[in-house]
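In response to reviewer comment 3 from the previous cycle, which asked for concrete evidence that the modeling workflow produces usable outputs, we include below a single protein chain processed end to end. The sequence was submitted unchanged, and the resulting structure tokens are shown without manual editing.
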Amino acid sequence: MAQQEKHTEIWDNCLQIISQIVEPQQYKVWFRPIRAVSFADSKLTLEVPSLYFQEYVESAFLDVLRMTLRRVIGEGAQLCYKVRPVQNQPAMRLAGQRAAAPVNPEVTVNTQPSANPSPFIYPGLHKIQINPRLNPTYCFANLVEGECNKMGVTAGENIASSPGKTVFNPLFIFGGPGLGKTHLAQAIGIAIKEKFPEQVVLYVTGNEFKTTYMHAVSVLNKLTDFMAYYMKLDVLIVDDIQDLLGHGCQNAFFNIFNYLHQSGKQLIFTSDRAPVDLQNFEERLLSRFKWGLSVQLSHPDYKTRLQMLRARAEREGVEIPEEVLDFLATRIKTNFRELEGALISLIAHASVERGRPMMELAASITETLVGEERTDIDMAKVQRSVCDYFNISREELVSKSRKRQIVQARQIAMYLSRNLISNCSLATIGQEIGGKDHATVLHACTTVSDLMATDKVFRKYVTDIEAMIAPAV
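The workflow returned the following structure tokens.
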């Protein structure tokens, strides 16, 4: 056989093996476009459509390629790549778009910005212009900072000053609904765009990423373009990442994550649960979520709730009596979303029922949101619940014992007191739990928050006790 034909035979033999290992769709997308161009001294050279194509194949199928080449060529097998010249590639176009008559053999890639850019436009060699999909309302100026989100805001401001260059990469923000995860994530993206207009920022939900991936593979067969698009980003924000389910989708995201992280790009994720509690996620992804900083957003305390109501009323241009705002902040303790909903509803009713006292309107609105007033949560109830859960006495809880179980119970009692009791200072909490100072209480709260983000068993302790104290909180 002529030397110039040997490379074709070798690659055909490799493809026969690879087709039996990888999924049919992956084989069609990632191996069929490859062409062997030369073979010499145990070195096989393959021609690939683009640099991004090469990077993805090397990242996703390196073990498969290594094993296959050893079987076909031998132990000394080597693999080289050659990027296919642009003029040899067919022009890309969106689904349904008619092919234009060729003017010359050179392909032109359109990188003009549009109001609604498609994720299937090949980004080319220059910075792409896309709509970052950020809501300007969700900026730092409109974000109320409190003890419930202080860590996240501080990390976010650091990231905005040096995206991709801090230790907070990735930033994983988690917490229950309505606690401001989306607001914080988008505020970081908005601040980055303001300080670094050339940065390519994209906000996308986990479900949108999954749907677009499936569309790229199953409908448009444009997975190469999909991967290339995401690999051109400087900042990727994925909201509700717990929706990123499916092996193929997670595999694509894993490779995008690796490429961006290794390239010094910023990654920001939000979730309704801690990384350790995510279900049906590959371990390799979960481990990467923990590389940077995991921040939990907790229920806002009374002071933060009141501050948020004042700020929102001012943004709406409405004057609301302080006692009415105080009433709302006292009655609605769950999250920012319910607080905002109550305030907007109050403003709407007040504009219609002008003769009705505003406090009466507020009482009526909150009644439908929170129902009957719950028994106030106090320090005694928190301590009693913690003691019952761990089967210890209150004397042991407030003692100076350094036994691991007692220390953990004491720290959890401090953490829950701070988060569930309105207007309760760190000094007050410390005084009620063995005469500890405020620094000890703050350290305990930070320790509990960190352990909840990394220890599934410990997190269950806290959520179980919280449900005992206030099931509706």
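The CA atoms of residues 390 and 405 lie 8 Å apart. We consider this sufficient to address the reviewer's concern, and the full set will be provided in the supplementary archive.
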